[in-house]
Structures are given as structure tokens and as C-alpha cells.
Amino acid sequence: MFRLARLVILCLIAFIAGVFFERQAQADKCLAAGGNLKGSICEGAAHG
């Protein structure tokens, strides 16, 4: 039972870490394109 609980907890931690990693990558791309990040939306970035 402990192994199953440990597996679920580790999977949740890995998922949450992946979400934060992707959000940071999105913010970096937005700023590199000259935009501003408002919440999770990039505003004012140059397309292309």
C-alpha cells in the first residue's frame, strides 16, 4: 500500500513540476517576442 501511495505522490509532483516548467517556458517565449504576460495570456507580442 505504501508503494502505491508513494507512486501516486511522485507522479503528482512530477506533473506539477512539468506544468510550472511549461508555464515558465511560455513566459520566456512571450517576453522574447516583446509581449507582456497577464495571467496566462501573452499580450502585445510580435507574431511571426
**Number of helix segments?**
1
Unreliably modeled segments: none
- Percent strand equals 5-15%
Mean pLDDT: 92
Main sheet characteristics: 2 strands, antiparallel
Percent of residues in helices comes to 55-70%
Structural class determined from secondary elements: alpha+beta
Compute the number of structural domains: 1
User: What is the radius of gyration computed over CA atoms, rounded to a whole number of angstroms?
Assistant: 16 Å
Shape: rod-shaped
Taken in chain order, the helices and strands follow as: HEE
Give the termini distance in whole angstroms: 52 Å
Please count the beta strands (DSSP E, at least 2 residues each).
2
- Widest beta sheet: strand line-up: 1-2
Summarize the structure.
By secondary structure, the chain is α+β, with helices and mostly antiparallel strands.
